[in-house]
Amino acid sequence: MKGTFITFEGGEGSGKSTQARLLAAHLKQQGYEVLATREPGGTEIGDAIRSVLLNPEFSAMGNVTELLLLAASRAQNVFERIKPGLERGEVVICDRFIDSTLAYQGYGRDFDLKLLEALNRLATGGVTPDLTILLDLPVEVGLGRAKALDKLESGTGKGDRIEQEDIEFHRRLRKGFLELASREPDRFRILEITEGIEATRERVVEVVEKFLRNRG
Ligand code: TMP
What we know:
Mean pLDDT: 95
CATH class: Alpha Beta
Number of domains: 1
Helix content: 55-70%
Oligomer: single chain
Structural class: alpha/beta
Radius of gyration: 16 Å
Shape: globular
CATH superfamily: P-loop containing nucleotide triphosphate hydrolases
Largest sheet: 5 strands, parallel
Distance between the termini: 14 Å
Bound molecules: thymidine-5'-phosphate
């Protein structure tokens, strides 16, 4: 496909959404056509699915239901936005994608990785990221940041349905992301988050500009 597909991945409170937004603004300023999206969500249907997925009142949700809702949101996002954007030659930036399913549902919820890969293929029709930026930070720090943000957003500070999982769950998925990155070193860049937003933004921009230059 003509365009370039960049995804952001990481655990809770890693600042992915902020960095995805800042990268999109930077590339637009540089004259690129940019399409920014996220998962779950990114489309009207996907956003409706997202609100079901993350609603803390739906504590009765089973893991298979969760998985299929995530896949449905992804299928709609690829069909409606990501694939058309890539076909038009745009830089498509997605806040979370297939690797979140492998990390959260695979390493976190213990679904078979091969099954998840097959489901991802069904949902994406084979569209895969050209570059994946993994924002990595200690679980305790990330969860603290996510809950502080939630306090501002919802006033509860308890986190959404998935953030409320215990700390071992979050430790497993961090390990998962790092394993996925080590399996595909050409696609992944791991950025350890030790500094503030602006310093991280500069590192993201550096990585992406180098990648785009090398692609020509
Ligand atoms: P976030 O993008 O705002 O962090 O929220 C999305 C939540 O959904 C987050 O807890 C991770 C979770 N998630 C999965 O469990 N699997 C997935 O495939 C995706 C895209 C998200």
